[in-house]
Amino acid sequence: MAMTIGEKIIARAAGVDEVKPGQIHTVNVDYLMSNDGTTHLTIDMYNNKLKNPKIADKDKLVFIMDHNVPAENPKTAAAHKKMRDFAKANDIKLYEGKGVCHQIMVEEFVKAGQFIMGADSHTCSYGALGAFGTGIGCTDFLYAMVTGTSWVMVPETIRFNLKGKLREGVYPRDLILTIIGDVGANGCNYKIMEFAGEGAHNLSISDRFVLCNLAVEAGAKTGIVEPDEKVVEYCKNAGRDAGDLFVSDEDAVFEKVYEYDLDKIEPVVARPDFVDDVIPLSQVGDVKIDQAFVGSCNNGRIEDLRVSAQLLKGKKVHPDVRFLIAPASNNVFLQALDEGLIDIFLESGVMVMNSNCSVCWGSCQGVIGEGEVLISTATRNFKGRAGHKNSKIYLGSAATVTASAIAGKIVNAEVIYG
């Protein structure tokens, strides 16, 4: 039976020869990731609700503190302590102050063909390396933690055939926001978004990360880019083998197929308060901003920081704007230091934050006030996501965010380049 990439990964995890959409399978999970958003809740259930608690395989568990790091109040500090103590008592891998959970997972653990669950909706990021990553709640995490298994209903797959290359000044962020704007926030509900074609292979691993990361904003169960030699090279450089590079069979069945010519994509923004309210940047009008942010699991990698530094070099952040940049991991931070990017940021008036979720999460750094406007590379722009319920969040690429921080209003980077 012909299968798609996602179906092949589920079949491998379930230990069966084939699967098809609608079937429910028990799967062995390759990794389980939990961050400081809900891990303390899982620990409480483990300690207080189970008669004979036992972890199935500690080596498959990864705990990462990234949402509120460092702790901003006693409540968070208590949750962090609970997480540290439990990890130490059970010999679980723990990352604190090292970066955003999904960035760390891709840097350190993920391989193509793996089935990974994480207690965070953007676990779908792992499709950048050809893995099936999906978010779960803390109760499902607990079950998988003590059994090593979970269940999955096999989703239909929607294929996005990409051709061509993005033009200069256009970024993967513009591409995925365009796609979400086209299909809608519910357009891929419980589907696999598969990105393939020569256009997909023209994208770097960092670019692919951007596409898969936001798949959940179209309602998808996961997003997967067809793996290739770039995945092999990335994993080799990270000191691990690439895993199983599954590709869809030629006669695989897709629920829908969309065609996108990357040459025709243009800079866009998502307007408040919905990720799928996407318009061309040229149509945004005169929107003054109070704050700008480059970072998050979607756009905090070295490629994004280079774009920001190129625009900022020799310039200043607008006096009425607060501009925060948070590298996605310490590895990214160190590379930015080595390349002199941090010097450019500080000289331009940027506030450089530690590697964490920062403004994207909107609970510990850069919270915005009533009536304020934020332009951001974060994952979401829902009402109240970054602060006051009456604040406004626009989403754009690192180039758009940086250019806007310099201009004091939302503009195309071409305005800054002149």
Provide tags for this entry.
alpha/beta, Aconitase, domain 3, single chain, 5-stranded parallel β-sheet, 418 residues, 33% helix, 15 helices
Description:
This protein is of the alpha/beta class and 418 residues long. It contains 15 helices and 18 strands. The strands form 5 sheets. Strands 4-3-2-5-6 form a 5-stranded parallel β-sheet, with helices on both faces. Strands 16-15-14-17-18 form a 5-stranded parallel β-sheet, covered by helices on one side. A 4-stranded parallel β-sheet has the order 10-9-8-11. The mean pLDDT is 96.
Give a summary of the structure in a few sentences.
This protein is an alpha/beta fold and 418 residues long. 33% of the residues lie in helices and 19% in strands.
Topology:
Blueprint: H1 5-14, E1 24-28, E2 31-35, H2 39-48, E3 61-65, H3 74-90, E4 93-96, H4 101-108, E5 115-118, E6 132-135, H5 138-147, E7 149-153, E8 156-163, H6 172-183, E9 191-196, H7 198-201, H8 205-213, E10 222-225, H9 229-237, E11 256-261, E12 268-270, E13 278-280, E14 291-294, H10 296-299, H11 302-312, E15 322-325, H12 330-338, H13 341-348, E16 351-352, E17 373-376, E18 392-395, H14 398-407, H15 413-417
Parallel strand pairs: 2-3, 2-5, 3-4, 5-6, 8-9, 8-11, 9-10, 14-15, 14-17, 15-16, 17-18
Antiparallel strand pairs: 1-7, 12-13
Helix pairs in contact: 2-5, 6-8, 11-13, 11-14
